[in-house]
Design brief:
With about 650 residues, the chain is mainly beta. It has 5 domains: about 1-80 and about 615-635, no CATH class; about 85-170 and about 525-595, no CATH class; about 175-185 and about 405-520, Flagellar hook protein FlgE (Tick-borne Encephalitis virus Glycoprotein, domain 1), CATH 2.60.98.20; about 190-295, no CATH class; about 300-400, no CATH class. The strands form 17 sheets. Strands 7, 8, 11, 12, 13, 14, 47, 48 and 49 form a 9-stranded antiparallel β-sheet that branches. Helix 1 runs antiparallel to helix 2 (about 605-635). The longest helix is centred in the last third of the chain and has 34 residues, at about 605-635. The radius of gyration is 44 Å and the shape is elongated. The chain starts with a helix and ends with a helix.
Length: about 650
């Protein structure tokens, strides 16, 4: 009888605990981020009345006789299932869709929660409403190797979003360009032997031979061919200009030269009659050949000197087009004149004048006196050579016109140190195979200095030289500092592959400026939280800046966390240490902005549990009253 009383008492106590847990679940049905609990029962102890016996001889075995002594609460488990998300539209409300916990902290320590009811306090700190605990995250900084990316700090710190704070102006230091320059267009001006980086890499006798071409400026070595092989290493073959005919330059044959490639001797020759550079083996068989006339781009004209002797002339520019050379030949005499050419910031011709160190074709004391002279067209897009001594219809000897379809430009605004905008334009002009000159200038502010140069491409269409350049711009007239601006055509300064920079393929012009890192002063007006946990601030100057990365904590055993009240959890010895990861990585869920996760309490389930707890309590109380009645009858036997 006493055993039944004790069993009833343990049952009443256990179901009272179940009532307490169910009551707590129901009371928190609307608590943000609350996780319900459940009670698990187990039998308590047993009194062995008789032990079990094994079968023996002709007797069967017997089972043990045991009387149970009640029930105990085995566990009160926290159910960490996802609660239903509820959209609020409040920018500071956050929810985790999936696994993970927000990390909040104060001077008292670090806690973990699923309740994302955050607000901004008077100092701009993002804190949990009701507790004041600050939301923790990683501060983001610009990647020094790629200014288009941000990298997170290494230490967790309280997230602070000072709405209304100024973002000081930043001068532009880097401008990035990408997309394509059309390789199919011709040179925008005649450039003689086109290109400065024409190379061939034939494999001869199992060895790669590097052959490159460069243009000189004298008759001897008008073109220089360089061979890099094992013997000799390297050596140059000068090609001499000996005349000019109506089709262009005439070159002298070179003396055959012997080179050793892979242990075998080969002969190099150049034949001026057909402009063929040839490598032959010991059997006089051609193993490699190049027609240099494929790389000629000379303008030609004819003029007569004071003796009425006719000369054929070729005209060429030296890249990037600031010197104009004239080479003339009458069948006996070779003459050379050159002029200095100036261009404005837009690439138009401004003036042309005879270089002081050049012979003067207009000098009447010169045995080769010519009456022609150059002039710049009114629009600045052409240079014309005229001879007023000739009949009117024959006075214009040559017009060198820029090919406008061989140029391409792009504009963008950059900023000085005070945040003043300035329109920068960059113009590319093709000057030869795989070579483009470029000019950077300020079309609306001619007083600002620009820069120019040459960019080269390889046979794969990617930048091979001149991919980055720095220019200094003096913004002193605006009260700003001198800025050093890097122009990047290769994409390397931005962590991109060469194919993502400026390329030269047989496709239309699409090159544009897509990045610059300057901006005017702005004020932080708003912010948003992305699904990956990045907190991005929006400024009045139109700039978005990544402020923080919001991580989440994962646990090997989330049910082992200790409830601390106020929907907070702390680490326990059985929960495992927190693994701090970015949302959407390592099994963590994503962040939902403007949303709260509600309690995972199901009222229907809780009411059923309430009924079960009530009936269990009643039944165990009935066991106690019944046992009491039996004891009372026992006491009545004495009467």
């Amino acid at each position: 009888m006493l055993r039944s009383l004790q069993s009833g008492v343990s049952g009443v106590k256990g179901h009272q605990t179940m009532l307490d847990v169910v009551g707590n679940n129901i009371s928190n049905v609307n608590s943000v981020g609350f996780k319900k609990s459940r009670v698990t029962f187990q039998d308590l102890l047993y009194q062995n009345m008789r032990g079990a016996t094994a079968p023996a001889d002709n007797m069967g075995g017997t089972n043990p006789m045991q009387i149970g002594l009640g029930v105990s609460v085995a566990a009160i488990e926290t159910i960490q299932t996802q609660g239903p998300p509820q959209y609020t539209g409040n920018r500071t409300d956050l929810a985790i869709q999936g696994d993970g916990y927000f990390i909040v902290g104060s001077g008292e320590g670090t806690f973990y929660t699923r309740a994302g009811n955050f607000v901004l306090d008077g100092s701009g700190n993002m804190v949990q409403s009701g507790t004041g605990l600050q939301l923790m995250g990683y501060k983001m900084e610009v990647d020094p190797n790629d200014p288009t990316r941000y990298i997170a700090g290494t230490d967790l710190q309280g997230i602070n979003i000072p709405v209304g704070q100024k973002l000081e102006a930043m001068a532009t230091t880097l401008v990035g360009f990408r997309c394509n320059l059309d390789s199919r267009v011709g040179s925008y001006l005649p450039f003689g032997f086109e290109g400065e980086n024409i190379t061939f890499n034939p494999v001869i006798n199992g060895q790669e031979v590097h052959i490159s071409f460069a243009e000189g400026d004298t008759e001897a070595g008008f073109i220089n061919v360089t061979f890099e092989t094992d013997s000799p290493l390297p050596f140059s073959l000068p090609i001499e200009l000996i005349g000019v005919d109506s089709d262009g330059p005439v070159f002298a044959d070179t003396t055959p030269m012997t080179i050793t490639i892979g242990g075998a001797n080969y002969t190099v020759t150049f034949m001026g009659a057909d402009n063929l550079l040839t490598i032959t083996n010991s059997d006089n068989n051609v193993v490699w050949q190049a027609d240099l006339s494929n790389y000629f781009n000379f303008a030609t004209f004819a003029a007569k000197d004071n003796n009425e002797t006719s000369f054929n002339f070729i005209a060429e520019f030296d890249p990037p087009g600031d010197v104009l050379h004239l080479w003339g030949y009458d069948g006996t005499n070779l003459v050379h004149y050159y002029y200095d050419v100036t261009m404005d910031e837009e690439g138009k011709f401004e003036s042309i004048a005879l270089n002081p160190h050049s012979d003067d074709p207009n000098d009447t004391t010169n045995p080769f006196y010519f009456s022609f002279s150059p002039s710049v067209s009114s629009g600045g897009y052409a240079i014309t050579f005229e001879d007023p001594s000739q009949p009117t219809s024959e006075q214009i000897l040559l017009t060198l016109s820029q090919q406008l379809d061989s140029t391409h430009s792009a504009k963008l605004d950059i900023y000085d140190s005070l945040g003043n905008p300035h329109t920068l334009e960059v113009k590319w002009s093709k000057i030869g195979p795989n070579q483009w000159s470029w000019m950077a200038y300020f079309p609306n502010e001619p007083g600002l200095s620009g820069s120019s140069g040459v960019i080269s491409f390889g046979p794969d269409g990617k930048v091979s030289g001149g991919g980055t350049v720095s220019m200094n711009v003096d913004f002193g007239a605006y009260g700003a500092d001198v800025s050093t601006i890097k122009l990047d055509f290769s994409g390397e300064s931005l962590g991109k592959d060469l194919v993502d920079g400026v390329t030269q393929y047989g496709s239309g012009f699409t090159t544009k400026a897509y990045y610059q890192d300057g901006y005017p002063m702005g004020v932080l007006q708003d912010f948003s939280v992305g699904q990956d946990g990045t907190i991005v601030g929006s400024y009045s100057n139109g700039r978005n800046k990544t402020l923080y990365s919001l991580p989440v904590a994962l646990f090997a055993n989330p049910q082992g966390l200790v409830k601390k009240g106020e929907t907070l959890f702390s680490v326990s010895p059985n929960s495992g240490l927190p693994e701090i990861v970015n949302p959407q990585e390592g099994g963590a869920g994503s962040i939902l902005g403007g949303t709260l996760e509600m309690a995972n309490v199901d009222l229907t389930e809780e009411f059923v549990n309430l009924i079960m707890a009530q009936r269990g309590f009643q039944a165990n109380a009935r066991v106690i009253t019944t046992s009491d009645q039996v004891l009372e009858e026992l006491m009545n036997i004495k009467r």
